[in-house]
Amino acid sequence: xxxxxxxxxxxxxxxxxxxxxxxxxxxxxxxxxxxxxxxxxxxxxxxxxxxxxxxxxxxxxxxxxxxxxxxxxxxxxxxxxxxxxxxxxxxxxxxxxxxxxxxxxxxxxxxxxxxxxxxxxxxxxxxxxxxxxxxxxxxxxxxxxxxxxxxxxxxxxxxxxxxxxxxxxxxxxxxxxxxxxxxxxxxxxxxxxxxxxxxxxxxxxxxxxxxxxxxxxxxxxxxxxxxxxxxxxxxxxxxxxxxxxxxxxxxxxxxxxxxxxxxxxxxxxxxxxxxxxxxxxxxxxxxxxxxxxxxxxxxxxxxxxxxxxxxxxxxxxxxxxxxxxxxxxxxxxxxxxxxxxxxxxxxxxxxxxxxxxxxxxxxxxxxxxxxxxxxx
Length: 376
Fold this sequence. Notes:
alpha/beta; six-stranded parallel β-sheet; 376 residues; Rossmann fold; globular
């Protein structure tokens, strides 16, 4: 079985690729030949077809890569083509970024008429929506990996695609790497490094792209809390990070909000935290939330986040509404009184234990085998 894996910029340690690497290794041990089609890649000795057409701007970049990748897999005549990019004609698509059309609809709900006009006129958004439709409704498409039921439902809402093609496979987490024992070992030093006193309640926000992840709502909610013990630590990158720092300063809570930038190892932050928080506007299934649960950290996520499907309010976390700073502030106060309980930490870990990276890879391998048994 000859498999092509398409990813414009491939990093085997990235959230989208980590557990798929495990499945591909299992397939290779059984005799399958796996080839990566990419513009650039990091690490590994996998066979690579490099396609790197020149481009200027994001639209030309994505469209050029899509044409070159499709030409490469057509020429090589693979048995199965799995794409992580929106490219019509692939056999298997992993919808790790969710549905762009749904994200735009949610975004358009809360902006001015002028801003809506700009987004609708943006050629990149028009290209992505058109390509997305062509891909989901293409007769060559045999299966879609949806990393949450939310994503599956979004696909069904916007496109004419058979429900049986959609397979919900949650992301996997390395249960040993993200383990409560590391939290216990790292906690004291990590909290000291962040300037947290013993009585302080720390909320960890992990994710890049602060607007979509809901950082503004988190800052506003913290500002509404009168409990001076509550703190917020933010790990992630955003080119407009200074705006969020200014927002915290304007709200009078600059001393309670720490923007840490990107972290190579987020485990010390999870160890220091009493609760994870991610009030996203749209988030198919953030790995960070699953990693926090695996380390025994309960979480607060928005209803527009795929991880909300795993949370049982009051047991392993809470669910908020996007943009609802007042409602989130109430949940912060609740978490301040309950998140440190041993029962909640145990429930958080138990939630992640059913989503180990090897179990997810096994399910993916089974899906590959099923598709490989059918002719293209």
